[in-house]
Structures are given as C-alpha cells and as structure tokens.
C-alpha cells in the first residue's frame, strides 16, 4: 500500500518515462506534486526505492528506473513484473482479536496489524487485519504487543527478510541500536535501527543499498520496539 503522494509521484514518473524516454527532474516532480521543497521529493523517492517500486542508478543524471507498478497503475512492471503468489506456506489466519492466550498451546495470539516497510502509511498498521499465534517466551517486558509483516529488504543484514513477521512491543522510548517502528512526520511508519545524534534521530537501514535517513527529533515518534521474529518457509 502506497500513500497518495507516493502513488502520485510513481504515476508521474511512469507517464514522463513513457512520453519522453527519461524520468522528470526533481524540480518537475516538486511542481507536479505541488510540494514546497525538493526534500519532500527525496523522501518519496527513498520510500518508493525501499519498497522496490523504483531503482536509482549511481553516477547518472535522472537515473530512476521503474521496477514494478501497483495494481492501481496497471499491475505490471517494467521488465515483466508479475505478483508473487506463495501457496501453502502459511496457514489461514483467524479473524482479528485482542492479544490473548491460545489455550493449551503455550502461545499468545497477537493482532497482525498489516505490512510495514520504509514509506508505509501509518493506516497500514492502525487496524488489525488478522491475528497470529506467537510463542509466549517471545513477548518481552510489559505493555501491549502486535505483529507486522515485513515488506522489502532494507533490514536484511539484521536478519529481517521480506515476508517475515516481526513482533513489536508498544513503547515510545528507544535506546541507540534498537530496531523500532518509527512514525516519521506523522505520515509514514518504518522499521529501522534507531540512533540518536544530538538533537537529531537517524533511522538506519541494515542494507548498504539504502541510505540513512536523519530527522530532527520532533519529526520522529517511536511506536514500538522489535522483540521477536517469525519466519515461514
């Protein structure tokens, strides 16, 4: 799921590449989306790249390549993208409910709050779409817990792969090095490593292909801390 601005930018880039053979400039993108500065375009481009919709090529001007498109823009990607369907690797999930003990199983059912990657809108994790059973020993500390399905590879060197389910403990406090769900500018939720640097907060990917994003501390709100991971094969 993309935010409206992300979708608008991806559509604009697609149309310009189709018409002119090259992507638009950042100034053209800023004007098309009616943004005040190019920093907003940089954030949108980074979010689209981390979610796998575009690719930036180094050392070339206007070097943006569309890798795939969402269904709302035709569902097909440059280079023959087609949706991946995995059959039978995860059991059907029951209807959402509050976290509770699963009788006799030594596990706890947590609400599965949707999918998360850099640039995912907060709406994607505001409403439970299903629930998932996790081992009780995976839950850490006091407070509520919830689960999120990961999309993208920006945290792959931390052992978090595309398709994994992460278990999050709700908290607004984080220490340097914690992997957190962070709300950026009240618009986007992302799973990144938290690092405080003076009056700024750096959200670090665990993949050298992605740049560290740095914000003033008032732009970032910690929504939860990673305490566990579930992987299916």
Descriptive notes:
The chain has 233 residues and is an alpha+beta fold. The chain is built from 3 helices and 13 strands. The chain has helices spanning 4-20, 26-32, 38-50, and strands at residues 54-56, 64-66, 100-102, 107-116, 120-121, 130-135, 145-150, 165-169, 179-184, 188-197, 200-204, 213-216, 220-230. The strands form 2 sheets. Strands 3, 4, 5, 6, 7, 8, 9, 10, 11, 12 and 13 form an 11-stranded mixed beta sheet that branches. Helix 1 (4-20) crosses helix 3 (38-50) and helix 2 crosses helix 3 (38-50). The radius of gyration is 19 Å and the shape is globular. 33% of the residues are buried.
Q: How much helical structure, as a percent, in the residues?
A: 10-25%
Question: Overall mean pLDDT score?
Answer: 74
How far apart the termini lie comes to 24 Å
Low confidence ranges: 76-99, 101-105, 118-124
| Rg value | 19 Å
Gross morphology: globular
Number of strands: 13
Work out the helix count. 3
Strand content: 25-35%
Task: Give the helices and strands as they follow along the chain.
Answer: HHHEEEEEEEEEEEEE
Largest sheet geometry: 11 strands, mixed
Defining traits:
32% strand, eleven-stranded mixed β-sheet, 233 residues, 3 helices, alpha+beta, single chain, 13 strands, two-stranded antiparallel sheet, 16% helix
